[in-house]
Design a protein that fits this description.
- This protein has one domain: Alpha-Beta Barrel (TIM Barrel).
- By secondary structure, it is of the alpha/beta class.
- The longest helix has 13 residues.
- β2, α2 and β3 form a beta-alpha-beta unit.
- The protein contains seven helices and eleven strands.
């Protein structure tokens, strides 16, 4: 930490995610984040939480505060980052999301293997169902599902040409988000009164920390302080460029 600035990154992937690098184990993610001074780190694989147990151990070993999550691809193909305080909460939600996916097999030749690993990068197995698919849960139903479970819900890269709220819905609906993630700062879309953050969306080691941000006014990197910072807009030094 730098004084009362807590460096934070809430959007990252591991080797479990389609199109993610096989190098991107939870250990590689965590060590890369530690090298970049990140204090609060989330793992948000596409539509699955199966690498979160390894992530929890890696964060504990590195002294980083873990946030447990996933990036849900809604029925409308809008990407939404869903975050939880506890590993068990996230895993239960991940089971719900995986059960909502169509029974379509992953094609490793196109999307790569969807690899489950342990904290020491040993392969435990593979997810055979395509995690690239869209859930049967709509964007409008997902937001209260997360909030009712005590989670944080953040529409991802709302202004991206694909899989953002604006590209898929035509606008960002006015719903009670925990924050909004934007590539452009200031955002080009209407975000109402929501706190705007950036996220690295790292699928490869070189991307770790590229668009992390800071929360300010707190001395401890806790989930409660993160939640309060997002709610109250205590976000500082957000990276100004996409890339």
């Amino acid at each position: 930490m730098n004084g009362n600035l807590i460096r934070t990154d809430l959007h990252n992937h591991s080797c479990l995610s389609p199109c993610g690098s096989l190098e991107m184990s939870p250990e590689v993610l965590v060590q890369g984040a530690a090298a970049r001074g990140i204090d609060i780190l989330a793992l948000t694989d596409h539509n699955s939480t199966r690498n979160l147990p390894a992530f929890a151990v890696c964060c504990r070993r590195a002294g980083i505060t873990p946030v447990f999550g996933l990036e849900v691809n809604t029925f409308e193909e809008v990407h939404v980052v869903c975050l939880f305080r506890e590993l068990g909460q996230a895993e239960k939600f991940g089971n719900l999301i995986e059960a909502s996916l169509p029974d379509i097999a992953n094609d490793p030749d196109i999307f790569g293997d969807q690899v489950i690993v342990d904290p020491d990068e040993q392969v435990l197995g593979f997810v055979d169902v395509s995690l690239f698919s869209s859930s049967s849960i709509s964007f409008f139903d997902l937001v209260p599902l997360v909030l009712d479970r005590g989670g944080l819900v953040i529409p991802a890269h709302i202004d991206r040409p694909a899989n953002g709220a604006v590209s898929q819905l035509g606008f960002l609906p006015d719903l009670p988000y925990s924050a909004v993630e934007s590539l452009s700062l200031p955002p080009t879309a209407e975000v109402y009164s929501n706190t705007v953050i950036t996220g690295s969306d790292a699928h490869y080691p070189a991307s770790i920390g590229r668009r992390s941000f800071f929360i300010s006014g707190y001395t401890e990197p806790t989930f409660d302080n993160l939640s309060s910072a997002l709610r109250d807009g205590h976000v500082a030094s957000v990276y100004r460029r996409y890339g």
